[in-house]
Amino acid sequence: MEKFKSYFKNERAILFFAWLLIVILTLTQRLIAGVFDFNQFNLSDILKFPFSVLLIGTILLFIWVVPGFKFIIAIKANWKYLLFLIHSLVYSFAYLFFVIILYGTLIEQLNVNWIRGQVKDVFANGFHTILQNYIFLISILFAFNYFKSREQTNLAKNKIENELLKVKHNALKAKLQPHFLFNTLNSIVALIEENKNKAQKSLINLSDLLRYSMDIKPKKLISINEEIDLLKKYLSIEKSRYEDQIDVEWVFTELKGKNEKFEVPAMILQPIVENSIKHGFKNIDYKLKLVIEINLINKSVRIKNNGQSLLKKLRTNTGLQLVKQRLEYHFEDNAQFKIYQKDNWVINDINFT
Q1: Number of domains, the chain
Q2: 147 with 219, same domain?
Q3: Residue 198 maps to which CATH number?
Q4: Residues 73 and 195 in one domain
Q5: pLDDT at residue 346, as a whole number
Q6: CA-to-CA distance for 22 and 342, rounded, in angstroms?
Q7: Do 128 and 249 fall into the same domain?
Q8: What pLDDT does 348 receive?
Q9: Single residue among 127, 157, 187 that ends a domain in this structure
Q10: 3-state DSSP call for residue 349?
């Protein structure tokens, strides 16, 4: 089946089958019109005509029509269409001449009077058919040229887009790593004097997170479970610093017996949690509660905290800007992120549609 399909991607194969179809239709038309006199010619002689047409037409197709088309189409000047006219006339006269000579030779009728009669008959009744056949074949070549050019254009476009995505991804990753690293190191530095063991454990978790963030590849998504494991490593660093001042609650919503594929960009939730903790602790004197809701049914994540309320004029920091940019990079319009205040909760929602 694949081999059969490949024939229709080959312009020479298509042109040959098209010419074969023309020959069959021409023979059928002549038989129906009663052009052949069965009293004068036997079946063998009759079949010599389509053989002549097929052979001469095929030879001209591949030594004149195709090379001539490729030569003319490469010319940028407008006068190349005049060349197509000359090209078609040369083809038509050459086709007429060689078919008559070959056919006359095969049926042993090749003489001046017979040739004169055949030429007169063709010019009176069938020369336009030869031109129509030429136009039909040239149209196929134009179609192949168009689709080939479009395919090459699409390939070039896709290559440029992929390169652009890589550049964009590397730019985002360059922003993500320093931003994440500096903020997390500040947390560990504050912890070193208080508890060296916790600081050591936090550095190990930070090392794992950095190694993972540096290996993020363009277009790579990870499972939500893997993302949760990464987020827990980050939260263990923050918990070591804040101890009992922060309470983290995980809420999972899933449909039993149904395992939906839920993938997200690696470390997409860390900046949201970091922002929730950093701004949640401002101007409060009570324990910060952080609730992380993972909905596996409708593929959404909600991260909310009961810390400081949102300002009326919300300013999006670097971390949240990266979240939006990365979602757009991976999902375009198929993922939405928003942050808003509801009662005493600051809510961050990500919906993957």
Answers
A1: 2
A2: no
A3: 3.30.565.10
A4: no
A5: 93
A6: 75
A7: no
A8: 94
A9: 157
A10: strand
Indicate the residue type of 34. G
In this structure, which amino acid lies at residue 43? L
Which residue among 157, 188, 212 closes a domain? 157
pLDDT tens, residue by residue, 204-220: 888 887 777 777 665 67
Distance between CA atoms of 148 and 137, rounded to whole angstroms? Answer: 17
- Token readout for 324 is 């939006």
Q: What is the 8-class DSSP label of residue 219?
A: T
Question: Smallest Cα–Cα separation from 15: which of 75, 96, 70?
Answer: 70
pLDDT for res 228: 93
For the chain, the residue count is 353
Residue of 242, 234, 245, 255 whose CA lies nearest to 303: 234
Co-location of 180 and 329 in the same domain = yes
DSSP code of residue 75: -
Q: Is 158 exposed, middle or buried (0-12, 13-18, 19+ CB in 10 A)?
A: exposed
Structure tokens at 270: 């860390």
Q: How far is CA 338 from the centre of its chain?
A: 29
Residue whose C-alpha is closest to residue 178's, from 271, 316, 266: 271
Q: Which residues pair with 188 in a beta bridge?
A: none
φ, ψ at 281 (rounded to 5°): -80, -10
- pLDDT tens profile 148-202: 888 887 887 777 766 666 656 565 555 555 666 776 777 777 777 777 787 888 8
DSSP for 259-284, please give it. Answer: ----EEETTSSHHHHHHHHHHHTTT-
State whether 178 and 245 are in the same domain. yes
pLDDT digits (tens, 9 = 90+) for 96-142: 899 889 988 888 778 888 888 888 887 777 788 888 888 888 888 88
SS3 292: strand
Half-sphere exposure of 272 (CA within 13 A, CB side): 29
**3-state class of 253 per DSSP?**
strand
Separation between Cα atoms, residue 208 and residue 206, nearest integer Å: 5
Q: Are residues 57 and 91 in the same domain?
A: yes
What does the alpha-carbon distance between residue 53 and residue 33 come to, in Å, rounded to a whole number? 18
Asked if 141 and 208 sit in the same domain, the reply is: no
Domain of residue 346, residue span: 165-352
124 and 11 co-located in one domain: yes
